[in-house]
């Protein structure tokens, strides 16, 4: 297999090297394939093998004044607290452990990272929040099926997370980047009594991602569940949502019946899957979907931003299900479109296999 070329000079989120070092932390299954391009003005280039204690690595093995990229395919990478990163590092981490990720997939998503435009993401994020703050609600529409669900913005505390734009010293970002998410609680926490103030009907159709949690599981079970859900690309379902909880599913095509059965089975095993725990507003408009169960597809923003729904939350539930839904567009209650293309399904940009 050909080398995995990593060119840190193309990761625009970092900004200029400014005499910093570049450090790649990666897994045993990747390290022998890696080759670093050394064309940028970094003072040094390093590759280190990840272990289970990343905070200790930051303290003892990763240099100060460094741009750090983490590619952890073999073990779950727990993002460190910002104070551990320190004011003299910038950290990017690829989301490549919750779904199987081989070298070919890494090559595709590294290209997506290189093509990410942080300045455009900053502009998109600023416009999104400016329009959201003009009203009391956000509305999620599907033009083909005439559905609408309404998120109340001020009836309870909501937690907004932005993984987009530039990375400053002391900061970290999941890459490929480009998401504004909203949850009822901090993303590292879970409370089954909480839910988003979302009511109405949503259409779930598009590209699922089935993330695995850290407890014991069998890869073939993850694949079996994903394979049944993958038919969502051509077989939509409609969900009735009451205060953030799915109370009814309806197949909108003959092929969607099996998907409804799979989701109902998940609900029966763990009722927490009924909760729309996260709404993700993806804004990476240079990203290209790689067909298959790939966590890094999550930030796919189409041409004008793209919505995804998140059910469950690892490690509290065994799986976290994201469903990228290009047919959904988002407005405020003034009629301004924040995400997607009003009144129509956005064109899709899909790669069938990695380069």
N-C termini distance: 12 Å
**Quaternary organization:** single chain
Sequence of strands across the biggest β-sheet: 15-14-12-8-7-20-21
Structural Rg = 20 Å
Number of discrete domains: 2
Q: What is the SS-derived class?
A: alpha/beta
Helix content: 10-25%
- SSE sequence, one letter per element: EEHEEHEHEHHEEEEEEEHEEHEEEEEEE
How many strands appear in the DSSP assignment? 22
Largest sheet: 7 strands, antiparallel
List the helices and strands and how they pair.
Layout: E1 4-6, E2 21-26, H1 28-31, E3 34-36, E4 44-49, H2 54-60, E5 66-71, H3 82-85, E6 89-94, H4 103-115, H5 118-132, E7 137-142, E8 147-152, E9 159-163, E10 172-175, E11 179-183, E12 198-204, E13 207-212, H6 219-229, E14 237-242, E15 245-251, H7 257-269, E16 276-282, E17 289-290, E18 306-311, E19 319-325, E20 328-332, E21 337-339, E22 350-351
Parallel strand pairs: 1-3, 2-4, 2-5, 5-6, 6-10, 17-22
Antiparallel strand pairs: 7-8, 7-20, 8-12, 9-11, 11-16, 12-14, 13-19, 14-15, 16-18, 18-19, 20-21
Short description:
By secondary structure, the protein is α/β, with parallel strands linked by helices. Helices cover 19% and strands 32% of the residues. The mean pLDDT is 93.
Structural account:
- With 355 residues, this protein is of the alpha/beta class.
- The chain has two domains: 4-94; 119-348, no CATH class.
- The protein is built from seven helices and 22 strands.
- It has a seven-stranded antiparallel beta sheet with strand order 15-14-12-8-7-20-21.
- A hairpin with a 2-residue loop joins strand 14 (237-242) and strand 15.
- It is globular.
- The chain starts with a strand and ends with a strand.
- The model has no long low-confidence stretch (mean pLDDT 93).
